[in-house]
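Support request, please re-run this one:
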Amino acid sequence: MRWGVDSSWYQVNQVVTVPERFYRPGEQRPVREPLFDYVTRRAGRSPEFWGRYLNDNHPPSRLRPDEPEYLFTRGCRLLLVYNGIRRQPSPGRRGRREGEKAARNAIRLARGYHVPQGVRIYLDLEGWFVQPEFLEGWWDVMYDSPYAGAGGIYGRGAEVRRRRRSPMPDLRRRPYSRGWAQRVLTAEDRVAERRWPGLLTDLVTGRHSKPYSVFIWTNTPRQVDKRSDTPPGAEIIPPSFGGVGPVGSLLTDTVIWQYRFSAFWERGRHGGTVDLDVALELAYQEMWGA
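Re-run finished. Output below.
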């Protein structure tokens, strides 16, 4: 299992001010350092990957040209997310075209950053209710691209079931919400009906050497961190995470879990600093690295 973070408002090398209670022995105020170093200070370890947007949803959100190399020199990979949906996706054929357009935009942006082939790109669906046709469109275009599998999806993929006064539940207890599962399975059925014979032929003939796979990055269940007194390294990484998918799924696996939102929150900072994630090794290997 790999540990990492993601950020939207802050760039990885943006300089932030360190609160005094997190000063190391001998440091004198003010202490200012890049966000990467601040996260390392707070977590007690360096992140192995960092999630960033390919595009702007609000002005500070997009990956900056100098960020990839900054991360790569520190042994950190990039988890790429496309966040270009601006309104509720449509159903039917129109929804499929919208999914195809989103994938083409993500591919165009990735090429602009010179992202190498074999890297998986995730689509941010947080807060959107998408129909199976939209998913089909995204999957098909991403599958025919040089990037990994049929892309990925980020959003609320897991059921949230907490008991009062209980610790944060393990993702495997309630692995998949019924709404997500039904839409994903419906899209899978349609893909299988349309493309399954061709997919087998592609693999046999070598036209496609990659599987038609979809990775899911779930943001539930998760904690919202509104405490600013968490000591370095305390309760940073959950005890376990095994990738799961909806029952009966052939194409999808949940491989990344955003388990804490607005971690290392400090008063006066917009929306917290970073979110905390864990990823399975197969997801980590398809992130952008040096």
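Confidence is low (pLDDT under 50) at residues 160-174. The helical segments are 35-43, 67-72, 92-112, 132-143, 178-205, 281-285.
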